[in-house]
Structures are given as structure tokens and as C-alpha cells.
Write a structure and sequence with these properties.
By secondary structure, the chain is of the alpha/beta class. Helices cover about 25% and strands about 30% of the residues. The protein contains twelve helices and 24 strands. The strands form seven sheets. The protein has a five-stranded parallel beta sheet. Strands 20-21-24-23-22 form a five-stranded antiparallel beta sheet. The termini are far apart. α1 packs parallel to α8. The longest helix is centred in the C-terminal third of the chain and has 15 residues, at about 300-315. It binds flavin-adenine dinucleotide (FAD). Flavin-adenine dinucleotide binds next to α1, β2, α2, β4 and α8.
Length: about 450
């Protein structure tokens, strides 16, 4: 049987490796349009922050290892351009321009997502570089070094932009963030977003929300981002406005796409064509809390999806339950995390939400070194179910959010969650864990 995978990163290489482990007799071919496979995109901001670190250190496993040790026919520099589900072929072009055709029995589309670029003139200028692929990371590192970059304008205020601000400030580079919408972190509790804003400002980042983007121009000493009421000078401009799924290949072949143009899949990762699977950032998922389709591009979902596809191709019947959108990121000394829905999302999904925001401590009363932890929790007044949690603090946030994620997956009520037996010792939190304090407060409202 021929199993062909399009895309050689998290979802694609997870699938290819596991399929070959499951069934060494399987012919596994991976088509990857770039020269890079299996690397940690998530590590790029931290690598860029350290000029002495080599960006190549982020490669988890080199292409040759997949070929030599795992027997995977890994074809880098091979861009898939067209699928013909009728005769089960995929065709495309190599980076040298040679046309290829491959037939498959089972196909996985794991083409990921592409950065959204601002729709303004000037984005093609040298020095306007998004951060998505390892090659983007290489370009940014080289540009900062070769051009002695001192001023960067970041377009967007999402988690990648925030992580990059920290990286730039670590190199003493001026960082200005700009976006056209007026609200900084609109998905987050406003008081908690304010704490993050203060953290950014106290580390020298300048925020400019609410400025429509007009154009980027080359100037005598670099670039200018021009808005009707603001001009920002920069040596480099980093668009970080989010990503969009790479689903055209599937859509052009008549495969159904859905939310946010991602490829629609069932819980076995099958598309509308029975021989074609899709996984990772190009595919949709079920949101466990709403039961509706969602599109949340994050790494664990891609790796897990790849595994499930490999198992299903090899004859098992593996299902992925879905996502609750668990995410965590760092903003200088702060850890920011979320799982599930905020109140506005809950209302939109048809719930009757109640919410609380509490402030607790990262260590027990009188234990030295304690800092504040903020918890915002949302529950449903109709069913009593836990719907979502946001957390913020200098310590004890990043992994604590996983308790909330598990409760959301288990569809626990706030009352059940409030009864959970959580660990306590003074260096790690108060006897009533911050999550339990929030749940106890929320119980009074639902
Ligand atoms: C800077 C940064 C930081 C991040 N941090 C985090 C984090 O902290 N936590 C987290 O959970 N997630 C994080 N992510 C997101 C995470 O990296 C992605 O969710 C994950 O990489 C998705 O994996 P994927 O395999 O679906 O897609 P991708 O990693 O995008 O891989 C898709 C591959 O397909 C190839 N491809 C596309 N089209 C074709 C074609 N037509 N033919 C052949 N090959 C093709 C691409 O070249 C690419 O190699 C981060 C992303 C970035 C950019």
C-alpha cells in the first residue's frame, strides 16, 4: 500500500514515522516543498533571542535520518500542486522545476497554515519578514545580525508577536507593536489584559492599538510603516497577524472545507474523500465544550492528528475527541494561559455564562517569593458546567491550566471541579488552589 503525505512538519512527519513503525512494509512517501522537515517552530522566538544559538538546533530530526533509519521516502523540494482524487494521484513540481506524478492508496494533507500578511502596499520590501517557517527564522536572524537592526515594528498583538517582543528586547532592540483594532488581547479578561500591557510597557515595548495600516515604504535608513495618524520608523517589520489554513489543494480537488477555510474532517481525520485524510493546522476539529467545529492551530493537535491518521491508515479505528483550545505563552516574566471559552464565546455558543475573576497567590501565605495569580473562570448557569478558564501570573500558571483543560475534556460541572482533590504544599500554592478558589466563587453565581 502506498501512503503519501503532503507536508513534512509536525502532523506530516508524526504520521509518516508512526505509519512506518506500525507497518514497516508500508510505502511511505512525504512531499515537502521546502528543504526543512520536523523542526520546532515554537522554539523560534527563543532561539532568535540568542544570537549565538544556531537556528538549525531547532531541527528535531534531519531529513536523512527519516530516510536512512526509518525507511521513509522523504522528498524535500517537492511542492504538491494538484490532487486527482478520482484516479488517486498527486502531481506537482520540484524546486528545480521538474514535474512529478505520484499515485497513492491513502493520502494525508498536512500542509499547515500560512501567515496572514497585511493587505497594504510595501509588504514585498526587504526587511518585511513574517515568522512562520524555519527559513523565516533564518532570514530574521540573519537580517538582525547583518543589518544591525535596532528598531522593529510588529504588526499584530497575538502570542507570536508578544513572544517576539521579548526576544527583541533581550537584544536591546526597540519594539513597537501596532494593530488596527482598538482592543489589546480582546479575548482576554480586560483587567488581566491590562496586567500584560503593563508588563510589556515596563519592559520598553510601545503599543499602538487602533491604528489602521496604510502602507510600508522604504526610507533612507530602513522602512516606514505609515498609518493615517502615525508613522513608525523601523529597520525590520514583522507581520504577526495570525495564520490561515493551507487548504487550496484540497478545495481545488473538490474536498469539503469548512470553518475559516480549514479542511473539514471527521474525528478519524477523514476528509469528504474516503481515501484522503487531513491533520494539523490545515484541518478543523471539534471543540469539546461547544460540540461545534472549530479551527485552532496549535502543535499538540497537529502531532496527535498525525498519529491518529497513521493508525487509521494501518487499519485501526482511532478517534480524536477534539480540542478545548488549551494554550500557554510567556510575556517577559508573565505566564499567560487559557482553556475553553470566554464569556463572549460562551454566549455566542448558546450558553448562559456566569464568570468570576479572582486574585490568589502562587505560594502559601507567608511563604517567601509568592506572587499574584489571576484566574478568570466561566461556567454555564443552565447546566452548571465549567466552560473556560484564563490564568495569569509569574509562576504556577503554565501547568496549572492543564487541570482546567482536563476538567473541560471531562465536561465537569463547576461543583465537581470545586471538589477536586488538588495538591498542596506551601512552595507551590495556597491550601485552596487558585483554581479551587475561583470555582468556589463561581458556584455562588450559577
Ligand atoms: C513562531 C511560532 C511559535 C509557535 N509557538 C507555539 C506554541 O508555543 N505552542 C503551540 O502549541 N503551537 C505553537 N506554534 C504553532 C505550531 O508550530 C503549529 O501548530 C504546528 O507547526 C502545525 O503543524 P503542521 O504540521 O500542521 O503545519 P506546519 O508546521 O505549518 O507544516 C506544514 C508543512 O507543509 C509544507 N507544505 C505546505 N504546502 C505544501 C505543498 N503544497 N507541498 C508540499 N509541502 C507543503 C510546509 O512547507 C510545511 O513544512 C507556533 C508557531 C510559530 C510559527
Amino acid at each position: 500500500m502506498d501512503f503519501v503525505v503532503i507536508g513534512g512538519d509536525a502532523a506530516g512527519m508524526s504520521a509518516a514515522s508512526r505509519a512506518k513503525r506500525n507497518r514497516p512494509d508500508l510505502n511511505v512517501t512525504v512531499l515537502e516543498k521546502t528543504g526543512d522537515v520536523s523542526y520546532s517552530a515554537c522554539g523560534m522566538p527563543y532561539n532568535i533571542a540568542e544570537p549565538d544559538m544556531d537556528i538549525e538546533d531547532l531541527v528535531v530530526r534531519h531529513a536523512q535520518v527519516f530516510r536512512d533509519k526509518q525507511g521513509i521516502n522523504l522528498l524535500t523540494g517537492h511542492c504538491a500542486e494538484e490532487l486527482s482524487p478520482g484516479d488517486k494521484t498527486v502531481s506537482g513540481r520540484t524546486s528545480e522545476g521538474k514535474v512529478f506524478h505520484l499515485s497513492y492508496d491513502k493520502l494525508l494533507i498536512a500542509t499547515g497554515a500560512s501567515p496572514v500578511m497585511p493587505d497594504i502596499p510595501g509588504t514585498e520590501l526587504p526587511g518585511v519578514i513574517p515568522l512562520k517557517t524555519l527559513d523565516d527564522g533564518r532570514k530574521i536572524k540573519a537580517f538582525i545580525k547583518d543589518r544591525r537592526v535596532r528598531r522593529v515594528v510588529l504588526i499584530g498583538m497575538g502570542y507570536i508577536a508578544l513572544e517576539m517582543c521579548e526576544a527583541l528586547r533581550a537584544m536591546d532592540i526597540q519594539a513597537d507593536m501596532v494593530k488596527s483594532r482598538p482592543t489589546f488581547l480582546p479575548w482576554m479578561n480586560a483587567d488581566m489584559a491590562e496586567v500584560i500591557r503593563e508588563e510589556l510597557e515596563s519592559n520598553g515595548v510601545v503599543l499602538h492599538p487602533g491604528h489602521a495600516l496604510e502602507r510600508i515604504e522604504a526610507s533612507d535608513d530602513g522602512l516606514k510603516l505609515i498609518c493615517p495618524d502615525l508613522t513608525l520608523d523601523a529597520d525590520m517589520i514583522l507581520p504577526a497577524m495570525g495564520v490561515t489554513p493551507n487548504s487550496e489543494l484540497a478545495a481545488n480537488a473538490g474536498i469539503i472545507t469548512g470553518i475559516g477555510n480549514s479542511i473539514a474532517v471527521d474525528t478519524g481525520l477523514r476528509t469528504s474523500d474516503e481515501n484522503v485524510f487531513a491533520a494539523g493546522d490545515c484541518a478543523d476539529a471539534v471543540h469539546v465544550v461547544t460540540g461545534e467545529k472549530t479551527w485552532i492551530p496549535l502543535a499538540l493537535r497537529a502531532n496527535r492528528g498525525g498519529w491518529a491518521v497513521a493508525d487509521n491508515v494501518c487499519g485501526k479505528d482511532v478517534r480524536v475527541h477534539g480540542t478545548v483550545g488549551t494554550a500557554v505563552f510567556k510575556v517577559f516574566d508573565l505566564q499567560v494561559a487559557r482553556a475553553g471559552l470566554n464569556a463572549a464565546e460562551a454566549t455566542k455558543a448558546g450558553f448562559d455564562p456566569a464568570e468570576v475573576m479572582i486574585r490568589s497567590r502562587s505560594r502559601a501565605h507567608a511563604h517567601p517569593g509568592a506572587s499574584k495569580i489571576w484566574v478568570q473562570m466561566v461556567g454555564d448557569k443552565k447546566t452548571g458546567c465549567l466552560l473556560g478558564v484564563q490564568m495569569l501570573g509569574k509562576e504556577g500558571v503554565a501547568h496549572r491550566i492543564n487541570a482546567a483543560a482536563v476538567a473541560l475534556h471531562a465536561r465537569m460541572t463547576v461543583e465537581q471541579f470545586s471538589q477536586s482533590d488538588m495538591a498542596y504544599a506551601p512552595p507551590f500554592g495556597p491550601v485552596w488552589d487558585p483554581l479551587l478558589t475561583a470555582a468556589n466563587q463561581l458556584l455562588k453565581k450559577i
